[in-house]
Amino acid sequence: MNPGLRYEQEKLAGTLVSDFQLKNNWAPRLGAAYDISGDGKTKAFGNFGIFYARVPNDLAARALSADAGIGADYFDAALTRPIPNGTLAGGKTVHYSIAGAGADTVDPNAKLSYIREFVLGVEREVMPFTTVGVRYINRRIPRVLEDVANCPMAAYDTAATMDACGSVDYILTNPSHSTPINPAVLAAAPVFGSVAFDDPVHKYDAVEFTLYRRMANNWSVQSSYRWSRLRGNFEGFYREDNGQSDPGISSLYDFPTSDPTYTSLGRALNYPGDIRFLGDPNGILPLDRPHQGKVFGNYQFPFGLNLGLGFNVSSGKPLTPLAPNPNTNYQNGGEIPTAPRGSGIQTVDGFKTRTPLQSQFDFQAAYDLRIGGLRHVSLLADIFNLFNQQTILDYDNWTEITFGAGPNPNAGLPTSSLFAGNPPQYQTPRQIRVGARFSF
Hints:
This protein has 440 residues and is mainly beta. The protein has a single domain (2-67, 102-439), classed as Maltoporin, Chain A (Beta Barrel). It contains 4 helices and 23 strands. A 12-stranded antiparallel sheet has the order 1-2-3-7-8-11-12-15-16-21-22-23, with no helix packed on it. A 3-stranded mixed sheet has the order 6-10-9, with no helix packed on it.
């Protein structure tokens, strides 16, 4: 048995909030192994651990400092005649807005996000130098650190609650179903009484089979197959479905997601999609890859030549249609699902719920040339994507580039709305690398 206990804390500072401290983070660890057969060839093992996530400085720059986003509409293409708020134009009356002009309000009880993981497995040496095994992995994220706006989306565009919400102001906290909605909004419009935040859910379960042969008789192999499921409404620091990399301040909790008013009131405001799909605790998360296989082998010739081959295969990524955020302070694309996560989109290759199966072969050759004593030169050559496969990695799943812009002309194409110029989303072509290493 190998027990342990780790303590950690983090302090972040921005231009407006200079002393945001995340303390009292205790992380117990426990590993255990047992020789079942007593002959040193069969091992049962288990591990448990809590792992805290260190928050990058993106949060300090954007949430603890002023990071204003300004939206404005104009009557003319030259942008010389701004449309004043209150004027009905383009189907709306709010034409000038500021988000993030100040720092987030910081919940004094906010704590770090963490992962809790269990692993149970068995390994058996079936022949000399060769081991087979199976293990189960259970991984959860019970608590997340995110910024939230405590007004329902429709409250920003409803006359009775517009003043109570104002611009979008954030609270940095650990969101859950108990995170309160703005009381002024509930007092002004009881229809919002049914709105709430969803508890963060990240459920990863996997079963992995392994076969390892350490180097013997000039050859070795490492191989595995993993079946897994990733479900929930929070995948982690990176939002893979729309490419947002804002750890701790992603758009997943910007507005309450258990919100029937998004459709009951929002349809009259032309709100697309349904924000409740975003908070579904059983949704297929974008990083779900049910099947993954890996094989790495090499052979060492007696005269110094070593040849290696690697093979990776993985299920494609789930596809979800994403509409733009209709809030007048945002309107950016790729945020609100129009259907359940992983339900699929129409592509140029037909309707698909996932991108194609991805696979790749890599090859390496190395030759060791001794030049006297401990000195030797290694000549290396690597070929990545040996067979130059060109699998499509992603399809554009944005219904609009921005709210009100009309249908996305690239929807369903093997491109991405995440980057300027919509580059093709194909597997990286064959790459060859050569090198030399001198050891002494």
